């Protein structure tokens, strides 16, 4: 046998490169395209077809406006979808607070989407109706926000594949009044509060998990009394010196989960922190930094439970 020449060695090397490239392209074509190659620009989705927002009276409120990082007079609810470039299949619907008067959208909506995306979680910020609507016979307090939350959950499950990645898990996080909404949809998901519109309403609106951060009026409207074994597990965080929402909202909700044997749930009560701190990245000037560790704790809870 003749020893290999330089030319034959170069030809062998070229063949190996070609084979490697063929294998690479074959593998990439057999799998779904990476989300990292897709446009991750946030986009809006209207929740209800025009003129079909349930129990809504056209013209009852002034035109919607966005001022000082808050939304006011929302009559046409919507979601803004923030796809994580390297998403893991988990989606979280985000409900800002505002006492059901307005929405603290920048601090408790858009900034939370940034945090969730950093965890490779897709974020869906909910712009639910505000201010509070009048009572309607047969519907619970907060019915307008609950309708919007139920619709949002169904849309995420129905549309997520077309957005780039099918939802393996869908959670719900809320702050203050949004925390009330997070508890509400976790305990009142069995029946839609509006007539079915399309295929999205045939899908479950039960969150796979919940996060409640300084939740408001959970005890006042006895959402703790609705907890049972079908309620999703929850992560709760609140400060004991909260002047706007008693920490009993978190404490009693957790105890309700414990009694119903809803596992794994986790509660963090901090000595100081007040109310409305978000994740301490927007307009937070208080010296109580221990409360600002809740996002790390929440991320660990999600990671341990296979959500990240």
Brief account:
This protein has 308 residues and is of the alpha/beta class. The chain has helices at 6-30, 105-118, 143-163, 177-187, 248-259, 294-304, and strands at 43-46, 65-67, 70-72, 78-82, 90-95, 122-127, 169-175, 209-213, 234-239, 266-270.
Following the backbone from N to C, one meets helices and strands in this order, namely HEEEEEHEHEHEEHEH
Largest sheet: 8 strands, mixed
| Count of runs of 4 or more consecutive helical residues | 6
Question: Stretches where pLDDT falls below 50 for ≥5 residues?
Answer: 1-38
Q: Distance between the terminal alpha carbons, to the nearest Å?
A: 58 Å
* Overall SS class: alpha/beta
Query: Helical proportion?
Result: 25-40%
Strand order of the largest sheet: 1-4-6-5-7-8-9-10
Shape call:
globular
Kindly report the average pLDDT value. Answer: 89
Could you tell me the number of beta strands?
Answer: 10
Q: How much strand content do the residues show?
A: 15-25%
